[in-house]
Specification:
alpha/beta; TIM Barrel; 41% helix; binds iron/sulfur cluster
Amino acid sequence: MIGHIHSLESFGTVDGPGTRFVVFVKGCPMRCAYCHNPDTWEMAGGTDMEPSYIMEQYHRNESFYQNGGGITVTGGEPLMQIDFLIELFTLAKKDHVHTCLDTSGIAFNPENPALMEKFDRLCEVTDLVMLDIKHIDPEKHLELVKQPNTNILKFAKYLDEKHVDVWIRHVIVPGWTDDDKYLFELGYFIGGLSNLKALDALPYHTMGKRKYDELGIPYRLEGVPPMDKAKLIEKKEVILDGIRKRRAELRDTAVSNQDQAAQGDQAAGFTKP
Ligand code: SF4
């Protein structure tokens, strides 16, 4: 099994817990307006590598990753090469290496049984998914990334059913993804996930623009300023408010269900030991 790889990074510090060996794959069907890796969009042009070669590279620098780190596959979109991903993570788990998938979830499709069988296998060898939800609103998502968010949100729920830990990431772009209404809705949605372990609200920056100029691709966020750091904290708080609201509702529902069950027991003549 061959993976089409953009590059390898042996000392990643922002791609999951601890220090990580990071594999950047080629190919992505999304077209996020703020993407800072447009050079990974096309599948062509990368370097072909076998999973065993990548694990050899990991083990050469193993001492870097003893601080709770491991291997992260990002991109591009790793799920576009799911067979390669399964093989790589299976090798990693045999060596007791922590595995992290950084993804947009775009390739998930519950209507495709053969693909779902692969997703089930992938879950068995994946310790953590960093799921980047670009926008909670379907139309605004389409406008921002040129793809629908339906299956991405289904993927989040599927990971919850599979008990795979999730970090949600959300890039906040002035004028595009910073509306409090949608940030709250995003929080409300992810507040319903019992596998949610962390939330990263990431500030939009303009550092990727240079690559667009080099590749001759029009930059859709021309003139949009970088996200202000102080504002970012406020915006993250709005998402957290949504999470709190959902969690409170779930607690209330659980309590009310318990009360109803207790009343049912009483009516049926059962007593608790
Ligand atoms: S999903 Fe990631 S790699 Fe693909 S366009 Fe969006 S930011 Fe870029």
